[in-house]
Design goal:
This protein has about 60 residues and is α+β, with helices and mostly antiparallel strands. The chain has three helices and four strands; from the N terminus they run E-H-E-E-H-H-E. It binds iron/sulfur cluster. Its cofactor is [3Fe-4S] cluster.
Length: about 60
């Protein structure tokens, strides 16, 4: 699965990083970024949990 994030849409709630801390991090402003472990794709099922947890649908997951 390929992860992409909408940094402009992210409101920094942190739900993704709480749900899947191996995949998502936040900068000093709380804005999301995909961590190296998820940057080249992932098979971690938590990515779906994080996607569902995001209150503004800023996370997109594309199936390989
Ligand atoms: S859950 Fe959504 S709004 Fe919250 S930090 Fe993650 S991407 Fe941003």
């Amino acid at each position: 699965m390929r992860i992409s994030v909408d940094r402009d849409g992210c409101i920094g709630s942190g739900q993704c990083a709480l749900t899947a801390p191996e995949l998502f991090g936040q900068d000093d402003m709380g804005i999301v970024h995909v961590l190296p472990s998820g940057a080249d794709g992932t098979d971690d099922p938590l990515v779906h949990e994080a996607q569902r947890a995001c209150p503004v649908q800023a996370i997109t997951v594309a199936e390989d």
